[in-house]
Design a protein that fits this description.
FAD/NAD(P)-binding domain, globular, 11 helices, 5-stranded parallel beta sheet, 2 domains, alpha/beta
Length: about 425
């Protein structure tokens, strides 16, 4: 190469960088687009189902699923592992091998770094992918900037365990290492957040663990909400009857500051809580890629969508399902849960296929069922049906477990069956 040619290339690269143009890495095409294509970002409860159902509804559409991890670990039921009621997380873990083999979903194990709705491309660390429609299921991330003193190392000392995996193991190990007579503190965020009954179930199962293995210990649940937001009569009954000697609930207590060295959290700067084990669950928002991709609303938290197609109100041909989306609602919103994500993904997939084939759209109709354990062999549940009315989604029917726990054992079995079935549907 001549000196003149090398100088020219240097100038060209410098000019591209100054102009803000994409450099090498984003320019590399991962898979040339030959026909109609749907790209799905995120292989959780919503994303994996959306990818599968687009292929089932129209096998002529190429579907590419981008996921960072080669295995998915369910957050629902991870509280059983944390509280020592599961030996490992194998029953919570699935792979995507059969999803690819049985349905022809093309897997890309990589991290999405950018979304360009104008160019209709997705950039990953390894290159770019073009799409006709994009379905984004990024899950949640945390608004840790609202907590003074919270940094990259805080979650190692005060695990949130609100994404199953390493965090779940860390919290479990801390509980097991704590001496009898120690104090456990759970701090839960304001709504909306992933799995409304989840912190209350966790408090029951950890209190059950302490009662059985460390009876001199105590659990305190700090709720940033002014009152219990899910299954209140069931959880309050469980706390008062099963765990009255080692459990305390305190509402309207929002953590604003942490001190890892002293093992304490501060409430509005005026009250400190110190504990041997601190399970700090920060306030939440849509996953990082939704923020980077300009899919969130003005508050930079959740992604506003059209409730029929789940298409972003900000960018055409981009659809958001699962925990990250903000569905316009009339009354209590559809919970951010695995069951909700599964339900939303099926409607989204159906209407994406209909849009691509010029067919009539179907109205949204969804369901959510949530099982919560109160001890090692009994669970309670809530079931809701949602429908679209006047452009908004509303709950049309709700059922909750009997207040006397008379169906507790049966509902525990139903919950285990639900987990097996939904994970099987995602992975085969």
């Amino acid at each position: 190469m001549t000196l003149e040619r090398r100088s020219f290339l240097k100038l060209l690269a410098a000019g591209a960088g100054a102009a803000g143009l994409p450099m090498i890495g984003h320019a590399n095409t991962l898979m040339p687009k030959k026909g109609r294509r749907v790209v799905v970002v995120g292989g959780g409860y919503g994303g994996a189902i959306a990818a599968k159902y687009v292929r089932m509804l129209d096998p002529s559409i190429e579907v590419v699923l981008i996921e960072r991890n080669k295995q998915f670990i369910s957050c629902p039921f991870s509280n059983f592992y944390i509280a020592g009621l599961m030996n490992d997380m194998s029953t919570l873990t699935i792979s995507y091998d059969k999803l690819a083999a049985n349905h022809g979903v093309k897997m890309v194990y990589d991290e999405v770094t950018a979304i360009d709705p104008a160019a209709k491309t997705v950039a990953t660390k390894g290159g770019t992918l073009a799409y006709d429609h994009l379905i984004v299921a990024p899950g949640i991330d945390f608004r840790t900037e609202e907590i003074e003193g919270y940094d990259a190392n805080t979650a190692k000392a005060f695990p949130h365990a609100w994404k199953a995996g390493e965090q779940s193991t860390l919290l479990r190990q801390q509980l097991q290492a704590m001496p009898d007579g120690g104090k456990v503190l759970i701090s839960m965020p304001v709504t909306p957040y992933r799995c409304p009954p989840g912190p209350y179930e966790r408090s029951c199962l950890i209190a059950h663990y302490l009662k059985k293995h460390k009876p001199k210990s105590k659990l305190i649940l700090l709720d940033a909400n002014p009152d219990v937001v899910s299954k209140k009569p069931l959880f309050t009954k469980a706390w008062s009857e099963l765990y009255k000697d080692n459990f305390e609930y305190i509402g309207a207590k929002k953590v604003t500051k942490v001190n890892v060295k002293e093992k304490l959290v501060s409430i509005e700067g005026v009250e400190d809580f110190k504990a041997d084990v601190i399970n700090l669950i920060p306030a939440q928002r849509a996953g990082d890629i939704a923020v980077k991709g300009d899919l969130v609303g003005e508050d930079k938290r959740w992604c506003p969508i059209q409730p029929v197609t789940f298409e972003s109100t900000k960018h055409k041909f981009v659809h958001i399902v699962g925990d990250a989306c903000a569905i316009p609602s009339d009354g209590p919103p559809m919970p951010k849960s695995g069951y909700s994500a599964n339900s939303q993904a099926k409607v989204c997939a159906m209407n994406v296929v209909n849009m691509m084939n010029g067919k009539e759209l179907v109205d949204f109709s969804g369901i959510n069922v949530c099982y919560s354990a109160i001890d090692d062999h009994r669970s309670v549940s809530i079931a809701q049906v949602f429908k679209l009315e006047g452009g908004k989604v509303k709950s049309s029917a709700t059922a909750i477990s009997p207040a006397d726990f008379s169906l507790g054992k049966e509902e525990h079995a139903y919950g285990e069956s639900w987990l097996r079935n939904i994970l099987t549907e995602m992975s085969t």
